[in-house]
Amino acid sequence: MPKPILDVQDLTVHFYTYAGVVKAIEGVSFKIFEGETFALVGETGCGKTVTSRALTRLIESPGRIVRGRVLYYRTESSSPIDLLKIPEEELREIRGKEIAYIFQDPTASLDPLYTNGYQVSEAMYYHRTVSKIKEGIMRAVDLFKKVLVPNPEKNVETFPHELSGGMRQRVVISAAISNNPKIVIADEPTTALDVTVQAQILELLRKLKDEYNSTVILITHNMGVVAEMADRVAVMYAGKIVELGDIFSVFEKPYHPYTRALLRAVPDPLKKIERLESIPGTVPNLINPPPGCRFHPRCPYATDKCKLKEPPVVEIENGHYVACWLYEKLEGKEKTSMQQPVEVQ
User: pLDDT by residue (tens digit) across 167-223?
Assistant: First the structure.
């Protein structure tokens, strides 16, 4: 049985705007195990980034974490700590050192006024991994070599605007791994990059994960990236997790209509397809989300019950969960609640 490192329970985040309360994520629960790559996948606006930022309370006004628990197992023997309850000072010691982020836009992540080496060094200096900035810059050279930044001795002295998008993303990855984090949260790290550079960055993340024995939370809308990188995947729609399981069971036997639709929208080079399938309609307004199942306005299998009641989460197979009324009466299967931790046996 793998050991959990994060246990997210009933995480709910709302944004209080002039137009109304945006229910960004509602009752999100999952467990992440040590050493695995866990993917959150879904359309733009489904709540993936909000979920990842809420794990370490990086929700800015007008957002607010309404309820939930994020239990972090800091060591094997110690009791877990709730990242939503500990003081901000203690959380700062964890954020960036033990739980690091790779954000999707490297340009926004780097300060244009400081050199690339200084910014990587600063991450180490703040968390006391090094005693001096100059020492950190020397270590940044080694990190640049690991992430395949060319001519690292020179590029620690360059500024972000002097590098390409792919090189800037490598600098951000260097800062993220500089303190040997236990968890790396990669929020769409290849979005702004071309296909060739995307493949290089993904291969780099895989190698670094193996080298540092880190746990990776991968945020993406690309099902191909999920298939290549992830061990388990949670499919999100309109602020809720609708399906969760290991990568093979979800891709080979997708149960939720939304998961099926996502996979049908991906071109298959081995099949002759004249027209790709699309998902009709649009993502619902989360100020006034539809009652019942939030996917029902776009679902070809929707019934009256789907429009009135939110479906429970059913364990279809060992560790494979789905929230859909189509599977309500599976014999020999017990219903489970989203409030309970989801784990693979």
Answer: 999 999 999 999 999 999 999 888 767 888 888 888 888 888 888 888 999 999 888
DSSP string, 212-267: HT-EEEEEES-HHHHHHH-SEEEEEETTEEEEEEEHHHHHHS--SHHHHHHHHTS-
- Judged against a pLDDT cut of 50, whether residue 337 lies above it is answered with no
Distances (CA, A) of 284 to 45, 200, 345: 10, 35, 34
Q: Are the CB atoms for 56 and 92 separated by under 8 Å?
A: no
Q: Which residues contact 62 (CB under 8 A, 6 or more apart)?
A: 15, 16, 17
Instruction: Look over the chain and give the mean of its residue pLDDT values, rounded to a whole number.
Output: 88
- In this structure, what DSSP letter does residue 260 have? H
Residue 50 near residue 24 (C-beta atoms within 8 A): yes
Rounded Cα distance between 26 and 40, Å, is 15
- End-to-end CA gap in the chain: 6
What pTM value is reported for the model?
A: 0.89
Distance of alpha carbon 320 from its chain centroid, rounded? 19
The residues with which 18 forms a beta bridge, in sequence order, are: none
